[in-house]
Amino acid sequence: MPHQYFIYILASATRRLYVGVTNDLFRRVFEHKCGTGSRFTRRYGITRLVCIESTSSIRDAIAREKQIKGWLRCKKIQLIETQNPGWTDLSDHWLLARDSADPSLRSG
Fold first, then answer.
1. CA pair distance 65, 26, nearest whole angstrom
2. Distance from the first to the final alpha carbon of the chain
3. Model confidence over 23-55: pLDDT tens digits?
4. Is the dihedral of CA 43, 47, 53, 57 positive or negative?
């Protein structure tokens, strides 16, 4: 089975952006939401997943991450709004879906 790699953009409530790459999107977004993903995202409250791309090549994923990081802010915003015009958190439903799928993850 081929691997899958994700290039993702997170945003804060004030739309400060963070671009990253991972092979486990669920885990990585969860780390950012818990404040253990990076100092930058923790410092600025960057927790909303607003854009996702995927590829089967780690080289392509890293190259794409670097490309996006090199863009001006307006171009990053254009990419986000093409995929997610409302800037909604694409990961909002993940914890609820995982909780209902695995009873051991429920609190209380």
1. 18
2. 37
3. 999 999 999 999 998 999 999 999 999 999 999
4. positive
Cβ atoms of 4 and 21 within 8 Å: the answer is no
- Compute CA distances 21 → 27, 64, 104, 107, whole Å: 12, 9, 29, 30
Alpha-carbon distance 80 to 51, whole Å?
6
Q: Which residues contact 95 (CB under 8 A, 6 or more apart)?
A: 30
Are 52 and 25 in contact by the 8 Å Cβ rule? The answer is yes
What pTM did the predictor assign? 0.86
pLDDT tens, position by position, 55-66: 999 999 999 999
Query: What percent of the chain stands above pLDDT 90?
Result: 82
Q: In what order do the strands lie in the sheet with 5-11?
A: 17-22, 5-11, 48-55
> Contact 18/10 with Cβ under 8 angstroms?
yes
